[in-house]
Amino acid sequence: MATQAQPAVRIDAATGRKLFNTRAEKASERIAGKGYDVVDDPDKLALPAIKRGAVFDAEEQARYRQFNEVRKGTDDYMAMEGSFARYLEDHYSAAPVERDALSDECDIVVVGAGFAGLLLWYKLARAGFDDIRFCEKGGDVGGTWYWNRYPGIACDVESYSYFPLLEEMEYYPTMKFASGFEIFEYCQKMAEKFGFYDHCLFHTEVNAVEWDDADERWTIATNRGDAMRARFVMLANGVLTTPRLARIEGMERFAGESFHTARWDYDIDLRGKRIGVIGTGATAVQAIPELAKVAGQLYVFQRTPSTIDVRDQRATTPEQVEEWKHEPGWAKARRTRFAQLIGRRALQANDDFLAGKVEAPGRRRVKEGPRPTREERIQSELQASFRIMEQIRDRIDAIIEDPKTAAALKPYYPYGCKRPTFHDEYLPTFNLPHVTLVDVAPLGVQLINERGVVHDGVQYDLDVLVYATGFDFMSRETLGHVRGVDGRTIAQKWQEEGTRTFLGLHSNGFPNLFIVAGPQGTGGSFNFTDAIEEHTDYVVWLLTTMRDAGHGVVDVREQDEASWSQHCAEADVASAPLRDCLSNFNGYGRAEPGALAYYGGKEAGRRRAWAKETLEPYVFRPARAGR
Ligand code: NAP
């Protein structure tokens, strides 16, 4: 049972407003862990030098094409429904706090209490919009960092640029690449410091959001029987929210324990067990070295190898902290510099550059003569990508003892096709006697029985099966619940007309609705909290503008939405050759261009600035008297 110091819903004596202290108690004390360790061995801290003569010639290009070709159409995922719905259960909280269903009205309802929700609260409250209610499916804040608690979890973006509001929080992350547990705790600290908990309904899943055009209000229904009303609705529920399972014959027959990485079950004792992991994406790469530390036998079923770059993890030094304490604005300045880094440079996160001590690494001098064409630029980027990938492949040869395992671990695709990963312990894990890489390329695991996985006629007996099979990237689930002016949901509108947004934040026909960091709004750049910062700033600006001008409702013009969506599609097509392969990011080749992540770079900032300056894209209605 949850123990609550205060009742779930109470009236604040000073303001007369309802406050919602409905946070569920954290149930499992066994949840602990850390991200990657610091590795001192200098040999592990750099990729091998590039071999002479390594060029992306016709032979290598054909090899890349073939690697991609054989994987076409193999992705087959399914939602966690029916008996698999158990994989979605929340292991991390006590039972939901009992509370009355709500049918009152507030100014703003926000879906989600991850970083986007927390930043919305911080910024909106400071701008005077504090009649806000948050609805969160989980039992606490954190979003991604609430749900993902697998051993070894860490952030791949340097923490000093990833954590928002570091100065306001007077907080210094302990490591350059922070553990997921530290990030989760940081979210809790933010919530406590800024009074967020009093505004959030936990264990509350929004399942219908409908616009009443006559009343100019949204109604928001939840799984707790609520039917609330609000002037504004903000969707802040992330892009990797819905875990998915590979569809594999016989998986329901497996007699051992099984779970998905996004709901790690710490009640299952893994020590000495025979464990199988399906998937080798960014999650598995972090979890596998930790699993190997406890497993009796570990089988890693790999369909496509990840890119394993050097991590170079470091502890934050007292000197760094001392420097930051005396440098007002340090975190914002660092975040701004980080945003200038693209591709591998962002992940390398050069400290001297980020501290403002040197120029951006690798900034090339402008050559004299005609500017290269787009095709020439792409070719030059592909050559650079090939050189990095060669070094990544050579690192595998340098570390892995068994040549067959080494060959299977080598990726043949452009850098960035599959989400690049970084680890200094992952590759050496495959030299351990109790760890086996099972190469299931190109089709993946196809058969599971009560004893475990069967592949190529070999039975792999398992006690525990871990699905590291990822998420439905930019899932449309919530968008299927939001009904606008003409009664269609956003998902229906996009199904019929293609993905249509303005700046990724608005969709015409859905007035007073904001989609924070969703399709066409984010995903193409590495630092996700950067997009959240930009979007939350924008939302605060628009609400303030409306308040100052006496507007009650905002929608966007169709022509501006069409133009933004076209720009998203063009940017996607233009940059596609650099990540030309099948992956989550392009719906395994099936997503329409521009439907998912945004690849337009700085153009988003320019168009946002234009919209703010001219107000041209907006259609406002005046606020009604007395409301
Ligand atoms: P993912 O990248 O989608 O990986 C899913 C894995 O499952 C892939 O390796 C896939 O193989 C494999 N798979 C699917 N069906 C299979 C089958 N039948 N047999 C064998 N393998 C199968 O998921 P994820 O690793 O959870 O990462 C998702 C995203 O989370 C990342 O892209 C990243 O954005 C984010 N993430 C971020 C961090 C961070 O540090 N910030 C850490 C972890 C994750 P194929 O590649 O062949 O499809």
Would you mind describing this structure in some detail?
With 627 residues, the protein is an alpha/beta fold. 30% of the residues lie in helices and 16% in strands. Strands 1, 2, 4, 5, 6, 7, 8, 9, 21 and 22 form a ten-stranded mixed beta sheet that branches. Helix 2 (115-126) runs parallel beside helix 16 (528-549) and helix 12 runs antiparallel to helix 13. The two termini are 41 Å apart. The mean pLDDT is 92. It binds NADP nicotinamide-adenine-dinucleotide phosphate. Residues 71, 75, 154-156, 240, 246, 248, 278-284, 286, 301, 303-304, 418-419, 440, 444-445, 468-471, 584 line the site of NADP nicotinamide-adenine-dinucleotide phosphate (NAP). NADP nicotinamide-adenine-dinucleotide phosphate (NAP) binds at residues 71, 75, 154-156, 240, 246, 248, 278-284, 286, 301, 303-304, 418-419, 440, 444-445, 468-471, 584.
Keywords:
627 residues; alpha/beta; 24 strands; binds NADP nicotinamide-adenine-dinucleotide phosphate; five-stranded parallel beta sheet
Give the SSE map.
Layout: E1 9-11, E2 18-21, H1 58-69, E3 77-78, E4 105-111, H2 115-126, E5 132-135, H3 144-147, H4 159-162, H5 166-169, H6 180-193, E6 199-201, E7 206-212, E8 217-222, E9 227-235, E10 245-246, E11 257-260, E12 274-278, H7 282-294, E13 297-302, E14 308-309, H8 318-325, H9 330-340, H10 344-348, H11 351-354, H12 374-399, H13 403-409, E15 421-422, H14 426-429, E16 435-439, E17 447-449, E18 452-455, E19 458-461, E20 464-467, E21 482-483, H15 490-497, E22 513-515, H16 528-549, E23 551-556, H17 558-575, H18 603-614, E24 618-622
Parallel strand pairs: 2-6, 4-5, 4-9, 5-6, 7-21, 9-22, 11-20, 12-13, 12-20, 13-16, 14-15
Antiparallel strand pairs: 1-2, 3-10, 7-8, 8-9, 17-18, 18-19, 23-24
The site of NADP nicotinamide-adenine-dinucleotide phosphate has 29 residues, from helix 7.
